[in-house]
Structures are given as C-alpha cells and as structure tokens.
Amino acid sequence: MARAASVSKSQSTENGTSKSDVTRQRILDAAAKVLAEKGYAHTRLSDIADEAESHAGGLYYYFASRKKLVEAILQIATRRTIEAINAQMNALPAKATTEDRIRAAVTGQIAEILSHDAYTTAFLKIYSQVPEDVKKRHRPVLREFFEVWREIIRKGQEAGEIRPDIDASVMRLSIIGSIQWSAEWVVSETSSAEALGEQMAKLFFSGIRRR
To answer: Is 50 exceeded by the pLDDT of residue 7?
Structure first.
C-alpha cells in the first residue's frame, strides 16, 4: 500500500485546511475503522498506518502514543453521541413532557449507534478493553454525556413526573446500558431508531412514572 509523505504544518489544501489537519483526520478515521474491526488488544499502530496509507513512525508526529490516539477516538465518539441526543432534544416543543424527552434522548443515542459510525462502533467495542488510565482521562467527557441524562431525570422529578424514590444514577445507568444492549443485540435490519426509541421510552417511563 502506498505510504503518505509527511507534510509541513504550513502547507494548506485548496479549501484552506492545512495538510497537517487532513493527515491527522485521515489517521483518526483509519484508527476508528481498525479499532472497530479488531478491538483494542489486536490493533497495532502498523495496522492503523496501513489503513491511513502512512507509516507507523509518521503517526507519532500527530499522536504521542497509541493511548493518545485511542483517547481521541473515544472523545470524538462520545461527543458525536451527545450531539445526536441534543439534536433530538432541541427539536422538542417547549411543553414537552419527561416521557417526550426520554424518547428523544433514547432515539438520538440509538440513531448514533445504528449509523454504524466507525467512531461509535469503536467506542462500544473497545471501552471495556482500554487501560484504566485511558478511562480516567476520558471521564470528563463522559460526565458531559451522563449530565444529559441526569438533567432529564432531575427535571422529571422536579416536575412531579418521575417518582421521587427513584435513584437518578441507577436509572441513568440502567437506561444507557439497555440502549447499548438493545441496539447491539435486539435491533433487526427493519428496525428504526424511532421505533425502538418509542418502545424503550414506554418501558422506562412505565416503571418510573409517578402515580
């Protein structure tokens, strides 16, 4: 496979993006693809370099280590999921109920998983495999993701729509875990994010609704 020559950070493409940025993005895309296919333990820098049409030594120009490259993949994946959820939430009317918000958030998260985006697929495949220090450095971004769900639950309890005896942290983790499991194992080729989001929102809300 052809190898990409290293480029100066001062060089630019016709649209104004530096060639360095283009190369970095190509490495990230290659890393996401390889990690999604092989997992963390079986991915070598040489595999990523081959996919990026570069050489292993050239990757260190952009990322100090394999861990740093993996951390970038995790961060991109998490932020894309947050953006997908927020896109659904922002489309809701001002008078949306807690059930509406749960449905929108579930739909957004499932849609991102079902998009088969390499970054999201890689995250789901490797997060349990990466070293603890990598997870620790990723926690600030992960907290942003958790905060989206925490806010939905908090507002639902304040509005009297969610039972006050429900532990918000337990509920949040239960919902997130169910979404990931369902999207990976339950969804058929004919299923849609909207259909699964509707069913899961009903299931979740029936157990937490204040009666």
So the answer is: no
The token duo for 211 is 């009666």
Tell me the two tokens of residue 107. 């739909």
Rg, the chain, Cα only: 20
Q: Within 13 A of 209's CA, how many CA atoms are on the CB side?
A: 11
Tracing tokens 């729509």 back to the chain, one arrives at 161
The DSSP annotation for 141-154 comes to HHHHHHHHHHHHHH
Residue with tokens 């016709």: 14
Q: Cα separation of 194 and 171, whole Å? A: 21
Q: Where do the domains of the chain lie, and which CATH numbers do they carry?
A: 1-63 (1.10.10.60), 67-208 (1.10.357.10)
Q: Is 190 helix (H, G, I), strand (E, B) or coil?
A: coil
pLDDT value of position 183: 62
Given a cut of 80, is residue 71 above it in pLDDT?
Answer: yes
Per-residue confidence (pLDDT) for residue 24, from 0 to 100: 96
Q: Quick one: CA torsion of 124, 128, 131, 136, rounded to 10 degrees?
A: 80
CA 140/CA 35 separation, integer angstroms: 22
Let me know how many helices (H) and strands (E) the chain has, helices first.
9, 0
Phi/psi for 156 (5° steps) reads: -65, -40
pLDDT in the model for residue 164: 85
Looking at the DSSP assignment, which residues form a beta bridge with residue 162? 209
